[in-house]
Amino acid sequence: MQKPKYLVIGGDMRNFYLAELLKKEYHWVEIYGFDKKNVKKKNSSLAQMITDCDVIICGIPLTSAGGYVNMPFSEETLPLDTLIEMIPKNVLFVAGKIEKEVKKNLDNRGVSYIDLLEREDMAVLNAIPAAEGAVELIMSSIPRTIHNSRILIMGYGRIGKVLARILSGFGAEIWVAARTYSDLSWTEAFGYKPVHLNDLERYITDMNVIINTIPYQYITADILNKIRPDCYLIDLASYPGGIDFNYAKELGLKIDWALSLPGKVAPLTAAEIIKKTVDNILVEGGRKK
Q: Taking burial as the number of CB atoms within 10 A of a residue's CB, which of 11, 26, 110, 263 is the most buried?
């Protein structure tokens, strides 16, 4: 069976490492949008590269401000609409966080696409570097050890589960706030202290660290008024986040909205996860799952 030909367009260091990983397996790989990393330009044009490939892999997220392809390591700009117009129907398009309107455009053109962030296999493994990145932030941001710290994790999804396990290994006292009673039962079964999201105000005062993973604002101004001044807050949720950032800053609280942690703290591991996910996609025949 002939190996697929790849074209990696832009993205952060995850995609830079991804291209290297694919080359190590002797795949045909072209890379575009990394001129700041001293990647030599090919004589062939982008249009020709697209014609020659089977799979295009863009970044996470796909777009940057203004509707351009996310290419932080390039001096050039590439409008996303221009790229989509060049993609033939026989090429699989892979990226992360593909906006709804972009999906409509791809559908209208008959282009097969996969959003990496909608893949469960990607999301589960990606939770590991995200959680480790959060731990790194905690260690550099609080004036005490994680051991014996009281830490509240908002949400018990993929990242919440991994975070609870890692932080409990450090000896932290783990509290988990969740909406469903099944999640609360699981947290209790693993030895964590359960908190229903409706009861946050009763428990929030004594926390040393609060980590939010829910993309809905549960930590409002009323909740923030009850948080101790030295509490450290991290929001790992995508837009719009789960914390009233403006009010938190007014109170002088230390807060980080830590997006895209896997690409920042462990880009090589994140690239390995992307590659594994793309391999799975191709085994499935490039179908959406």
A: 11
In sequence order, the 6+-apart residues with CB closer than 8 A to the CB of 24 are none
For residue 163, which amino acid is it?
A: L
Q: Options 3.30.70.100, 3.40.50.720, 3.40.50.150, 3.30.300.130; which CATH number does 6-118+266-283 get? A: 3.40.50.720
119: left (phi over 0), alpha (psi -120 to 50) or beta: beta
C-alpha pair distances (Å), 139 with each of 33, 105, 232, 253: 35, 44, 11, 17
CB contact set of 61 (below 8 Å; sequence gap of 6+)? 70, 95, 96, 97
Tens of pLDDT, residue by residue over 72-130, are 999 999 999 999 999 999 999 999 999 999 999 999 999 999 999 999 999 999 999 99
Q: How confident is the model at residue 289 (pLDDT cuts 50, 70, 90)?
A: very low
Centroid of chain to Cα 49: 28
